[in-house]
Amino acid sequence: MRDRRGIGHAETGKHVFLCEMAGELEGEAVLDLGCGVGWFEDYAVKQRCSRVVGVDNDEVRLERARRRVPGATFISGDAVAINTDIGTFTVVAMFDFLEHLPRDSVPAVLLSAANLLQKGGRLLISVPYRGLVSTTLDMTFYLGHRHYKRLQMRALLYDAGFKVSRVQYGGGIWEHISMIWLYIFKYIFAREMPFSAFLEKKRLGEYQSPSSIPGSDSATLFVEAVYKDGTV
Q1: Which CATH superfamily is domain 4-227 in?
Q2: d(CA 230, CA 232)
Q3: Mind giving me the DSSP string for the chain?
Q4: I need a labelling partner for 29 at 20 to 30 A (CA). Which of 42, 58, 95, 143 fits?
């Protein structure tokens, strides 16, 4: 049987927006929790970061990441139990990551990120937005794939010593359609979805117009927070 873990890892409009959200990273020390196949590490290395580290617990994805980005360091491990001996960072990323964790582990993961960030460092997060359309059309929501609202994420970050500096919403109906299409072909047919170029063009257009106010069909909540060393 084909390994489905390699399916659906093409970069999308969401990835483009996340790189824009991260901004200029030259000289920064970057840690990516839940790095997957290393797409963000590739961007960070090209931005001439001083150090780039990715963490994931999937060895297959990590091996792909190591081959793709030899200039980054990849660690196999649990984001909650990551060793602080790896040093501190100026940027920590958690893209499409928190919603996959056990609910009661999320505060510990955010505290772990705080411990690994220098004071004034940035935490970058993307999670599914908890709206009527986004939850209804996300097939994995019914299997425990959590969605978040702004106030819920702000409270979690406050408790971990962060101050939210930016919130945006992106994606829309084409993002939802694309994900349904992906799940059908990934888990039923075990192959890449057809018409991906057409769908990606539509998704890219949606992420090129993010908003500070959620739309009725918003797919993703993007949050940037600053670590204030326990003072917010």
Answers
A1: Vaccinia Virus protein VP39 (3.40.50.150)
A2: 7
A3: ---GGGTT-S--HHHHHHHHHH---TT-EEEEET-TTSHHHHHHHHTT-SEEEEEES-HHHHHHHHHH-TTSEEEES-STT--GGG--EEEEEEES-GGGS-GGGHHHHHHHHHHHEEEEEEEEEEEEB--HHHHHH-GGGGGT---B-HHHHHHHHHHTTEEEEEEEEE--HHHHHHHHHHHHHHHTS-SPPTTHHHHHHHHHHHHTS-BSS--TT--EEEEEEEE-TT--
A4: 58
Distance CA 137, CA 217 (A): 10
Task: Give the Cα separation of 7 and 187 in Å (integer).
Answer: 9
Q: In the numeric block, which tokens belong to residue 46?
A: 């090209």
Q: Which two tokens stand for residue 111?
A: 């505290």
The amino acid present at 79, given as its one-letter code, is A
127, β-bridge pairs: 221
Backbone region of residue 191 per phi and psi (left: phi > 0; alpha: psi in -120 to 50; beta: other values): beta
Mean pLDDT of 67-76: 96
* Integer Cα distance of 156 and 101 in angstroms: 14
How many residues comprise the chain?
232
- Boundaries of every domain in the chain: 4-227
Residues facing residue 53 across a β-bridge: 31, 73
Q: Contact at 8 Å (CB) between 49 and 73?
A: no
Global pTM reads: 0.93
55/70 Cα distance (integer angstroms): 14
CB neighbourhood size of 62 (10 A): 21
